[in-house]
Amino acid sequence: MLIGDVARRSGVSARMLRHYDSLGLVSPTGRTDAGYREYSGEDIRRIFHIESLRSLGLSLRDVRRALEEPGFTPSELVGDLIRQTRERIAGETELLTRLRRIGAAEPAGWEDVLQTVALLQALGSKSAGRRQRAAMASVDEVPVPVEALVEAVLSETDPNVAGALRWALAQSGDAGPALLAEGLGSPAAEVRKRAVRSIAEIPDGEATALLRDALGNPDLVVRRYAALALGARGVADAVPTLIDMVVEQTNDVDAADALSALASRPALAEEIAGRLVDRLAHRTAVSSVRRRLTEALADIPGATASRALVELSDDEDRAVALTAAYVLGLRDGR
Questions:
Q1: Dihedral sign (CA 305, 311, 313, 319)
Q2: DSSP E strands: which ranges in the chain?
Q3: Rg, Å, the chain Cα set
Q4: Burial (CB count <10 Å: 0-12, 13-18, 19+), residue 20
């Protein structure tokens, strides 16, 4: 079969077939009387073998090894091809993400595109200072897609940069909470923590609803951050978790402050005082726990808290009795 016929039937151009011949990959078995290349059936099968291997991403050098080295084993080469393909896909995915973010910023001209690219690169910089400046600039100078800010804040380890990113997200509009909510379900504990802290700094609205849902999150850290934020927003659902935090001495001062803020509503003050008294009634609680619960009653107004403190001032546990007496003195001096 002449080279033109082979090219038509195999889909490999005559030029490439000549290149294969020059490399010694596949040379026509014979020649016609006129000197033209003439390919045998075996030559054509070899051409198809070459094209099949090239379709996997093999170089012509690797194709030669595969076809000519008797001891060649493909497993290592295939492993390298898998790694290279994954790297290529990751690179293309990163490029696609960047292009989508630039498009989301709705640039008016190439200057806007260049500014957005520069800011996105700065958010991924190894320099914490550069990342922090980029977070600040995203609010007043160059708009950055919220998706990029969310990705940055969920991966940020530097506390100062994280604070700047959370602030930027709080100014970014309504899209942030929904994207951050995905972080609450991350398998990584640190990502869940960053997500709830970021949601906590977004003003009322969808963020508050997400924080309510977070009270039922399997992650205890997420529940605690959500409770502190909801307490500051006056959401009564946070009370049980806040009291647990006082008992467990986990951010107990902040939890007591949040309970005090919630207790500014008279009806809620009685509920909070009642819950604290119920926990105090558990005599199995260790002295330090009962003392913290007594201290938490200090800033809870109302008759229930006052009665409980009077009774506790005669508690058999001296530390609790002294704490209650001290607290009563402060309340009487108001």
A1: negative
A2: 30-31, 37-38
A3: 35
A4: buried
Q: Nearest CA to 123 among 115, 113, 131?
A: 131
* Full-model pTM: 0.66
Closest C-alpha to 215, from 189, 239, 194, 191:
239
Give me the helix-helix angle, 206-214 and 189-200, nearest 10°.
Answer: 140
User: What amino acid occupies position 173?
Assistant: G
- The two tokens of residue 136 are 């600040």
Long-range CB contact pairs, 325-328, < 8 A, 24+: 327/294, 327/295, 327/297, 327/298
pLDDT grade, residue 143 (50/70/90)? low
Q: Assign residue 286 a region: left if phi > 0, alpha if psi is -120 to 50, beta otherwise?
A: beta
Would the pLDDT of 144 be above 90? no
Domain limits, the chain: 3-72, 234-334
Helix (H, G, I), strand (E, B) or coil at 11: coil
Fold (CATH) for 3-72: Multidrug-efflux Transporter Regulator; Chain: A; Domain 2 (1.10.1660)
198 token code pair:
């970021």
Name the residue with tokens 């012509």.
60
Q: Would you give the DSSP letter of residue 78? A: H
Determine which helix (DSSP H) or strand (DSSP E) holds 104, and give its type and residue range.
helix 74-104
The percentage of residues in the chain with a pLDDT greater than 70, rounded to a whole number, is 88
Question: Are the C-beta atoms of residues 178 and 207 closer than 8 Å to each other?
Answer: no
pLDDT tens digit sequence for 282-299: 766 788 899 999 999 988
